[in-house]
Amino acid sequence: MEDERRIPGWSWPLIGVVGVVTLVVIGLYREPAALDPDTPEGTVQAYIGTLVQGDFEAAADFWADDGCTPSSTIPTRGAPDVSVSLVSVDGNDVQANVVVRISENSEEPLGGLYEYEEWFTLVQQDGAWRVRQPSWPYYDLACEESA
Amino acid sequence: MILLGPILFLAVVGGLIALGVKAWRSRGEPDQEGGLDLIPYLILALAVGVAGFSLARLARASLTPDRLAGRPIGELAGALAGLVVAGPIAFVLWRVQAKKRSAFLRNPGWPIYLAAIEVVFLSAFFVSVGQVADALTGTALTPQWTDLAVYGGIVGFHWWAVNRETPYGDVGELPRLIGSAVSAVALAVGSIGTLTWLLSEAYESLGGSVTVPEPAITLALLVTAGPVWAWRWLPVWEGEPGVLRNVYLSAATALSLLMTIGAAVTITAVLISFLAGQAEPAERHFDVYPAALSFVIVGSGLWIHHRGRIGDERGGALRGYQYAVAATGLATLIGFIVALVNLVFAPRLAGGETGEALIFLGCSVIASGAAWAWFWRKVQAAPRADEIHSLPRRMYLLGMAVITGLTAAGALIALLIVVFRALLGEGGDVSDSLRIPATLTVASGLAAWHLFTHVRADGAQLSKTEVEPFTVTVVCSRPGPLSTLFPKEATVRVMYRADDSGMIDEAMAAAIVSEVGGRSSLVWVDDRGFRVAAAREP
User: Fold this and answer.
1) Tens digit of pLDDT for each residue in A52-107?
2) Is B501 helix (H, G, I), strand (E, B) or coil?
3) Hey, are the CB atoms on A112 and B78 less than 8 Å from each other?
4) Domain count of chain A?
5) What's the pLDDT at A74?
6) Are B109 and B36 in contact (CB under 8 A)?
7) Does A54 share its domain with A95?
8) φ, ψ of residue B84 in degrees (nearest 5)
9) Residues of A in contact with B142 (CB under 8 A)
10) Model ipTM?
């Protein structure tokens, strides 16, 4: 009862609103993590960054020479409008798997948010990590064996 | 689709306005009856659920350091929308219901709401404990600690609220029971996983070949669920156990025994198949032992604890436990018999290593049959006059009789379809198609016949028993359906309490009728349940 007298009832919603607004501001202005580009996760970050910015030629430079690569450097639906977070990294010095969670807004106002996980397989090539057989976001493109 | 947006918007805004107007009008004027209050608490639970999960989503999008690219606009928008709609509803309803509770302490809506929150958010909390443990020790890099904080905070807040306003009566035990159940499951998973890890390490060090599981998640569950379970379940419970606590005790005891029996059957079958030469090399053959032994150890520990809580007095909990195991034993006996017969007579063209499966099914048939026979004998040895009135016995006999009878009828239809197709000229060997329906018809039919025999015997004994007129005086605040459940020989007098404690619901009414058992009695109902005392015959 003393607690109730000390803290007015309207203060709880105020605290809640302030907390929510703070979280939203942090979420909007926080920069993506700065990962080491020499690591598998850093390579995936740089690769996705070039795709999001629409620099598809630079993105294609991240592709490994061997395996199947898309027949065009331009993704199926152009530059993806997504936010990407890291889920896990697994592997060794030669090959690594990086799993990310991708959130993609629907173009419909009430279409909601698509969330899915994508796997990137990376291999060491010429001292750097390269994305092997990239599928995201090149879903509908035929691929060509280049090695 | 074009109209969907405005309609949804208007519906949400209209609902909010209506809720606000209602809350404003009813401020300081709790209704005279109090009622069950379920609808407001249901809306409150939904609002708290949406707000809680939206807050977790918002915190995850804003605070976890795992963003590689882009801004989390979609996540923030979704979480904000949920919070803007559900947050005010939750806040307003919480305050309205708090005022109402101060006037009507014993409304069952409050404990039911608390139980719903406990089952959803305590489960979510344990899931996030496992995810954080996995992230800290596995390949995942960023633990979702925000989920842990939000779900833990919501659970903790409601525990604090319970501490301030303890729910009353039988139904008031529901939140604690739900919390005990959720944490007992998490504790069992954690204990079994941790023991499996330890025993697998031991098995491997002895030369065995086994996949050693990662212990992080199960260890984390063990460490967090143990204290929660101890806090929710172990402290002294007030008063005699009511219907809900009896149901919980029966279910927990029966499930832990069934878990132990199932694992023991696996251990025995693996050993027999090894001795019978139906085995891989020894180091691989026993690789199921670490997990099976863990189930036995944890299951038997839980069984010893809960069986001790039930005691030896033949009350609702003991009956519920015994009939639950008997029912499961009978159902699994039928299932395993059908599987065994099917496997024995299945045509094999070549090879086919069925030895181990046959041994496992044989052991399962024996264990199921033994469990059913053991508990059926126990319940049959109990004094019949009391037993035939008991709710667990009626549920067992009638429920299982209907289920096995319908199963037998369905299997017979399937059997006759095969027979008629053969008679009407469809060629080929039909014996393969007959095996399962024929076995199921016979096994279920025999079980149904056995059960219906006892249903008839109980009915005959009930009608033979000459019930003398008797008087039951009930002291309660609301008799509910009580008077309709007593036989016509009963004269029921109700003395109303001045307060709101002692409401009788359907389950309690059935329990009272069973406990009174045709004798003149005085029944006292309060917030701790009911008590029955013998009264002088009229």
Assistant:
1) 888 888 888 888 887 777 878 888 777 888 888 888 888 888 899 998 888 887 66
2) coil
3) yes
4) 2
5) 84
6) yes
7) yes
8) -65, -35
9) 85-86
10) 0.74
